[in-house]
Amino acid sequence: MDELKRKVLELLKEDARRDTALIATMLGVPEDQVAKAVKEMEDDHVIVKYTAVVNGSKVDNDKVTALIEVQITPERGRGFDYLAERIYLYPEVKSVYLMSGAYDLLVEVEGKNLKEVASFVSNKLSPLESILSTKTFFILKKYKQDGIIFEETEGDHRLVISP
């Protein structure tokens, strides 16, 4: 990937609402070069989607999010990818990551309530062949996501005392 594409990508990661004219001005290059770079990255699936980062505590969102550690035994000839694909095709699953360490996959699941997530784990995920164990952790509060801090910190409101 060339340097222009890297810079454009970084600017879009910071704020996907930036248009090509603004990015061109920020980088000091012609707008058509930026538009071409963006189009090529979209075509090459470098840029997959533009999305908003939403502070769930500020909206009426009663959904529950859980992170599930999954230990598996990969099947001969299929590896981890086959089972990861079977898992990420479920609509409840938001993300799946291959991990190093004590477990193999980290699965992010979203449901209407705790019972729905528990049902997913016990009825859909755990029964899959090759799954050795799961550990489920429910997200209670998000402080920061994708580099964005959700909670506004209050400044020090104490009165100054002078001698």
UniProtKB/TrEMBL annotation:
Annotated keywords: DNA-binding, Transcription, Transcription regulation
Protein name as annotated: Lrp/AsnC family transcriptional regulator
Keyword DNA-binding applies: yes
Single Gene Ontology MF annotation: sequence-specific DNA binding
UniProt KW Transcription keyword: yes
InterPro entries hit by this protein: AsnC-type_HTH_dom, Dimeric_a/b-barrel, HTH-Siroheme_Decarb, Tscrpt_reg_AsnC-like, Tscrpt_reg_AsnC/Lrp_C, WH-like_DNA-bd_sf, WH_DNA-bd_sf
Limits of the HTH asnC-type domain: 1-81
Organism expressing this protein natively: Paenibacillus sambharensis
